[in-house]
Amino acid sequence: MLRIIVYTGLSLPFDEAKEILDSTDEVEVIYKRPIQRGDLGQAIKEHPDIIAIIDGVFHQSSAVGHKEILNVMKSGVKVYGASSMGALRASELDTLGMTGVGYVYTQYATGEVDSDDDVAVMLDGETLEALSVPLINMKYVFTNAVDANIITEDEKDELLKITKKTFYPKRNYSQTLSESDLDNDKKAELIDFIRTSPDIKKEDAKDLLKIIKKEIDEIN
Questions:
Q1: How far apart are CA 45 and CA 22, in angstroms?
Q2: Where are the domains positioned within the chain?
Q3: Is the separation of the CB atoms in 93 and 115 below 8 Å?
Q4: CATH no. for 2-115+201-219
Q5: What number of CA atoms fall less than 13 Å from residue 196's CA on the CB side?
Q6: Residues 90, 82: contact at Cβ < 8 Å?
Q7: What region holds the TfuA-like core domain (predicted)?
Q8: How far apart are CA 79 and CA 67, in angstroms?
Q9: 151 forms bridges with which residues in the sheet?
Q10: What is the pLDDT of residues 22-60, one digit of tens each?
Q11: pLDDT single digits (tens) 127-139
């Protein structure tokens, strides 16, 4: 039986993840909370064939290390990364065999972003619910808002400047807009746009699971 371990819960809740990739008679999918330093040493004892890293801790505990991932890959396990910690580590290890997927991974891989602060969020430790908005999501939405002629490039830069200077647990759209110089009509139009915009970290996580599912289907 093929065994897959997926570290998520924050960017993509477990129930939504299972709608895309769940256990069958041929495949066992094990979902785990965001990864931290030392978790892969235990995971390898479960003899996985594939490990997908989506979410991971940054500031609450020690982050998963590069050497841990390299050791897992050397043992023959295929490792994917997307969305958050997975995207960051994949951008650093893609030349060594880790597979990155999605917008966030590409942002890191191309050097558009280079800090873990861009994907960091405050979370509820029990429910894994995000209590703030990651900078990478806000950058994605504001860039698209420029393309949609809702805000100008200069206004986007102002919004991102406010966002970047805000400590990550306190980042949210309401706080950013309240500190901006946008007029009320433009704020209202931007709020409507934000409400209909995709959560890019979630979309990347979904895409990663779809890629793994497609690979499994081809094997079977």
A1: 21
A2: 2-115+201-219, 135-200
A3: no
A4: 3.40.50
A5: 8
A6: yes
A7: 55-171
A8: 13
A9: none
A10: 999 999 999 999 999 999 999 999 999 999 999 998 766
A11: 888 899 999 999 9
